[in-house]
Amino acid sequence: MALNREFVGRAYKASSPYEVSRVKIAEFAAAIGDQNPIYHHRDAAVAAGHPDVVAPPTFPIVFTMSAAGEAFGDPDLGLDFTMVVHGEQRFEYERPVYAGDELHCTTTITEIRSVGRNEFLTLCSEVTTGGGDLVCRAYNTIVERGGAA
Amino acid sequence: MTTTARPGTAKVRYDEVEVGQEIPAADYPVRRVDLVRYAGASGDFNPIHWNERHAKAVGLPDVIAHGMYTMAQGGRFITDWTGDPGAVVDYGVRFSSMVVVPDDDEGATITVSGRIEEKLEDNRVIVVLTARSGGSRVLSRARAVVQLA
User: Fold this and answer.
1) Most exposed among A72, A121, A148, B61, judged by the fewest C-beta atoms under 10 Å?
2) How far apart are CA B79 and CA B106, in angstroms?
3) Structural domains counted in chain A
4) Which positions ≥6 away from A85 have C-beta within 8 Å?
5) Which of chain A's residues have a Cβ under 8 Å away from the Cβ of B91?
6) Is the per-residue pLDDT at B59 higher than 80?
7) Nearest CA of chain B to the CA of A8: how many Å?
8) DSSP string, B48-68
9) What is the pLDDT of residues A3-62, one digit of tens each?
């Protein structure tokens, strides 16, 4: 079933800020097999010139997808999540994400299009501090296989 | 997005790299247990990444790796090269093929290599990545902008 184009432009704000912890960064780094001490030890991060441990470049996927979960679960969108694969992903950093950050995330559905038999849905998540300073933007395109058939 | 220049903490010096320079390939193994661990750390429990029965029922050849797991290995390749994860200013990929992960002791291997495509202002470079698994190119348009020292 084709996705509902009326969802383009809808924005979803995370209900609470995401608190970045050293423990979660270390867990995520271990899960991608990365033992870089800058992910695991505050002293190593400080020695490298950072205020605290740094999150790996793809870490924001942990909290940027959840805001969109609300949209994906809306029956009016018409998304069959069992047929979804990841199409594209990009992170644009204004500064690194550090342990101790409290990050606010607003995710907007920017585009829905058909390519062959598949439906492509693109999201942009804007991640800011409580003071409104931009930290990063995450762009995410998911593909619903067979959705346009 | 125009990002502000930040102090370079990378171990690679801008003056010492040239356009066309290759970054030697690295192999990253991926087994089922890695996908289970990544599912837990990332919060992405889509069963196509851990349940063979489900993966086959939705038309996939077998369990496939999270695209974000593959992207993370590309990120690791970049941060291992720069020495500092904070040096990654922009990182984006397209998921062009699936990483199929069989249920055996070997699993699959993701091989990543890189090349300096362009030198930018403010000690930044564009690195283009190639990632292959099982004879297929699993990432396309994979590029990172990195802040060098």
Assistant:
1) B61
2) 25
3) 1
4) A142, A143, A145, B48, B64, B67, B95, B98
5) 57-58, 90-91
6) yes
7) 21
8) GGT-HHHHHHTT-SS-B--HH
9) 999 999 999 999 999 999 999 999 999 999 999 999 999 999 999 999 999 999 999 999
At B64, the pLDDT band (50, 70, 90 cuts) reads: very high
Q: A90: distance to nearest CA of chain B, Å?
A: 4
* Euclidean distance between CA atoms A95 and B79, whole angstroms: 15
Q: Global pTM?
A: 0.94
Q: Do residues B89 and B145 make contact, with C-beta atoms less than 8 angstroms apart? A: yes
Residue A12, phi then psi, degrees to nearest 5:
-125, 120
Please indicate whether, in this complex, the C-beta atoms of B72 and A58 are within 8 angstroms of each other: yes
**Is residue A97 in some structural domain?**
yes
The position carrying tokens 């606010």 is A104
B55 vs A: CB within 8 A: no
For residue A113, CA distances in Å to A72, A116, A122, B126 come to 16, 10, 9, 29
Name which of A22, A36, A66, A89 to mutate to probe chain B: the one with the most chain B Cβ atoms within 10 A of its Cβ: A89
Is residue A38 situated within a structural domain? Answer: no
Domain that holds residue A111: 5-19+59-144
Chain B residues within 8 A of A83 when measuring between CB atoms? 58
| CA quadruple A128, A132, A135, A141: dihedral sign | positive
Task: Tell me, yes or no, whether A80 lies in a domain.
Answer: yes
Q: What is the ipTM of this complex?
A: 0.94
For chain A, what percent of residues have pLDDT higher than 70? 99
Pairwise CB contact (< 8 Å): B1 & A137:
yes
**Is residue A105 in a domain?**
yes
Average pLDDT value over all residues in chain B: 94
Query: If you measure CA to CA, which chain A residue comes closest to B94?
Result: A88
